[in-house]
Fold:
Amino acid sequence: MNLRTFAMIGSAAISVAVLAGVASGRASAVSTSLPPISAGRVILDYQPHHTQARALTAGSTSVKRFTRTVTDGSTTFHVTMVGKNPFVVQTAPSTTVKTFLVPVKIILPNGDTFDPTATTSCDTQASALTRTVQSPVVASRAYSVGGTALGTGQYTDIFRRAEFFTQTSPTGINPGYHVRLNTVTLPVRTVRVPRSAAAEFTTTTACGEKTGAMDINFWDNLVTGTLLPSLRAQGVTETTLPIFELRGVVMFDGTPSSCCILGYHAFAATAAGKQTYATAEYESSGRFAGVNDVSSLSHEVAEWQDDPFGNNPTKPWGHIGQVAGCQNNLEVGDPLSGTNIPTATNGHTFHPQELAFFSWFYHSKPSLGVNGLFSNNGTFTAAAPACT
Structure:
């Protein structure tokens, strides 16, 4: 089974990925009114089965981006990435994308509530929302790899600088290159999940909390049909990135046995263009191996940054990270899903995910990345092997 695919569903392109993980916890009573979930694998960038008609034709307006032609052996690819082209001298090489962090309080039909703006027994000091704002995905700090300074910035900004370091280094053509998120937090949205789209784990977490679940198809139709349109009055447009944050709630695909989806990035067509967006769960349950706090968020933002519309092709690669088979796309989180880089900001240690460089996918010789590496913590020291 190919665990990652790309498709045009209605007028949204969404990618699919699976990261192996095992659910765990101690027994706890669950309302019999909701279907139970006992275990599941972590799934990122899943593809909702859109049921909502999207009649609007996509225009050209979207997030700031550039297109580049890449030659890999005898094959030529055309890729689109967020930001300005680092391979062309830029008078002002820095890009800032207005980003809206939207906390979503989920209420299940049995009354169980999951609110990212509230503290929990798993973290009594700060809410998931507060932790996210404090995290390296939002907050800036200095980074280095192997003794080489990469500059000061947010985690995914520095990832971009690192993967194109031949251009962004102090001796490169664009030393001031950045792709920054200017993050604004919006008021919490409350969503009541219908019984037909709700489920709940049969165990509590190690600190005694429940974990809810909802159908991703219900959720994504709500995002594209209701939430995104309602946010336009607060400044969300095609040139911005809205990120919906969940806490203690994962998603399943159609049936609770197809669990668990912790995040994805996508775009929806509008009359003006393409609205990119993402959903990510702040993970504190301990249920899923290799995923903690902002692991999912860093994965989704980095993949949005390097593959905003989910259509950047590559030669086949796979049998690594969360990919059991072969896939052929520039999704920089997948090859190293489950491999995190403990990173301290604001007095707390977070766990953003390690990410694969552009050169890993397109077999650059030598790598365009810092110190000739192929990932931002040096796990990859050579390009992707061929996948058959």
